[in-house]
Amino acid sequence: MQTVSKTQLKSQLLSYFRTIEKTKKPLVVTHQGKPVLKVYPYKEKPEDILLKLKSSVVTFKDPTAPVGEKDWEAL
Q1: pTM of the entire structure?
Q2: Residue 66: pLDDT above 70?
Q3: CATH of 2-61, one of 3.30.420.40, 3.40.50.150, 1.10.357.10, 3.40.1620.10
Q4: Mean per-residue pLDDT over the chain, rounded
Q5: 29-36, long-range: CB within 8 Å, 24+ apart, which pairs?
């Protein structure tokens, strides 16, 4: 895990953000040598992704039945 002082972080903030995005590892920010912050890369929880899919699945009662003209919207 990378460690950086507040002063270094302030002067090169975007560079450190890019490093966090690329490595996917947190960054510890120190003040007078003591850790005060930990910056983590953003990561969606798997549950959040599944919630987006909720009610989006279409079910078919008889998936092997032949398709008729009434089933095609373009016709």
Answers
A1: 0.57
A2: yes
A3: 3.40.1620.10
A4: 85
A5: 29/3, 29/4, 29/5, 30/3, 30/4, 30/5, 30/6, 31/5, 31/6, 35/3, 36/6
Q: Taking a C-beta distance cutoff of 8 angstroms, is the pair 57, 50 a contact?
A: no
Query: pLDDT per residue over 29-48, tens digit each?
Result: 999 999 999 999 988 777 77
- Per domain, the residue ranges of the chain are 2-61
Amino acid letter, 28: V
Confidence of residue 21 (pLDDT cuts 50, 70, 90): very high
